[in-house]
Amino acid sequence: MLKFPKDFVWGSSTSGPQTEGRVPGDGKGDNLWDYWYQVEPNRYYNGIGPDKTSTFYENWEKDIELLLETGHTAFRTSIQWSRIFPQGRGEVNPQGVAFYRQVFEAIKAKGIRLLVNLYHFDLPFALQEDGDGWENKATIKAYEDYARFCFETYGDLVDQWITFNEPIVPVEFGYFYDAHYPHKVDAKAAVKVAYHTQLASTLAVKACHEVLPGSKIGIVLNLTPAYPRSQHPADVKAARIADLFQAQSFLDPSVLGTYPEELVEILSEHDLLPEYTAEELELIRENTVDFLGVNYYQPLRVMAPRFAKHPDSPLLPEHFYESYVMPGRKINPHRGWEIYEQGIYDIAQNIKENYGNIEWMLTENGMGVEGEDKFRENGMIQDDYRIDFVKGHLRELHRAIEDGANCKGYLIWTFIDCWSWLNSYKNRYGLVELDLETQERRLKKSGHWFKELSDNNGF
């Protein structure tokens, strides 16, 4: 049996916008997803938007009981900024404030370690409408005020705080790839948004340490390793640039307090550097995170670009590297993603060797499957494929810990089938099945197995 360290925690991650839903009179304001669904519902798989999701807002008591049934000793969720501040700033929604307090109190009463994320792709729409969202430094101040309010309001209940979840994703999909609102294609805006997000994260770290001395606050990053197609210098360079853009753009300033010189040089060469001050860079240097959350699903395989950029086309990441499909790769046939368990070990080694072996937790890892109902037997989804997926990654995580990785826990994505942005409920990830029509919850085979995993602290 592979046994994990004594204080290792087991649980899952989810987010407010992907689970809570909305009910009339709840006081919540629109976020980007709420607004986008109202104007372009056709963008969403089967037309399912963020208004219903998994109805956690109404069924939280039942779901917290299910956390125990599935062996949770830790749980990560997020506060929806627009549920606390419907307009992003100014007037507070007391119903939202009370909702999170009762949820957090109930989770803590069960003896579950609580990790709370402040931002999961869910900017209040009013801030986008009034001032271009994260392109405007006023949004940084609004976020800092919101974060400080949360520290002051829930600091007695939260064990670990998180500033942002995967901040590179809204940058990429909102400003390059037309999959997040405001669905622009604008490299200069993308870099500005990334810098402003990092600065907001830095200010939240500073505020947390001021309001809650001794508390732990971190950031969750998708540290997908970039693997070159070959050792040809052009492929190696492509992988290095991919890593700079995808991982180090937030990892280095968050943990080391500085940006990689090569990244700054590339941005400068293409006239993409954002406006910044020496004072801001000093804030980033002095306010680094206490821990990392690491999300990992699949590797990023890249090769050198095969074609020159057209002089009139907008600058995209593909002008620096192209995705590479490795022959013979192991794949999740239900999702189309490569399965490469060693990526976990490689991430752990990178953190140990280049980032001071900072404390970290695997905060997302999971397997999405379309049409899971076909695996139902005797009323239960027999998701052995999910169990095998987790076991494979845990073997590599265990190997990394044996080799000195400072990893403190494993949080699967996710606890209950949740709404996944434009994909809605196309791919299911949960330990618990959600019936969209009845909102009934049923444990999958993996839910029972996960409790055994947690109870045994290994497998």
Automatic annotation (TrEMBL):
Gene Ontology molecular function: 6-phospho-beta-glucosidase activity
Lineage of the species this protein comes from: Bacteria, Bacillati, Bacillota, Bacilli, Lactobacillales
Protein name: 6-phospho-beta-glucosidase GmuD
Entry annotated with the keyword Hydrolase: yes
EC number(s) stated in the UniProt entry for this protein: 3.2.1.86
Annotated Pfam families: Glyco_hydro_1
Keyword Transmembrane appears in the UniProt entry: no
Originating organism: Streptococcus infantis SK1076
Family: Belongs to the glycosyl hydrolase 1 family.
Enzyme type, top EC level: hydrolase
GO cellular component: cytosol
GO terms (BP aspect): carbohydrate catabolic process
Domain of life: Bacteria
Annotated keywords: Glycosidase, Hydrolase
InterPro entries hit by this protein: GH, Glyco_hydro_1
